Amino acid sequence: MHDNQPRTSTPDTLPEVITRYLKAHRAHDTATAITAFTREATVIDDGNTYDGTEAIEGWLDRSATEFTYTIHLTDAQQTDATRYIATHHLEGNFPGGTIDLRYQFTLRGGLIERLVIEP
Known about the structure:
The protein is of the alpha+beta class. It contains 3 helices and 7 strands, in the order E-H-H-E-E-H-E-E-E-E. It has helices spanning about 15-25, 30-35, 50-65, and strands at about 5-10, 35-45, 50, 70-80, 85-90, 100-110, 110-119. The protein is globular and about 35 Å long.
């Protein structure tokens, strides 16, 4: 992308590794979700940083059981050759009950190297 402008994507145009992670995360399938990350990946969520697949696996296990919620992909963008943003609308029994979150993915070697989740 040479014009430096984000390009809107649809869920079916997101890279396979991102859709694999998103589907597995939504299904609480930690074993599949973790395969989407590099060994030294970093996830930042709710002010906490998880470095490496062991820490990410623990985060995935906790997030699957901490709250009950529905998640709906509302927007997807490719911001450059290795970065994507998937915006989700969540509704559930967490504080506030609804939120829109941006899942900001950075890919390396066909896997997720960094994921930042924030409003």
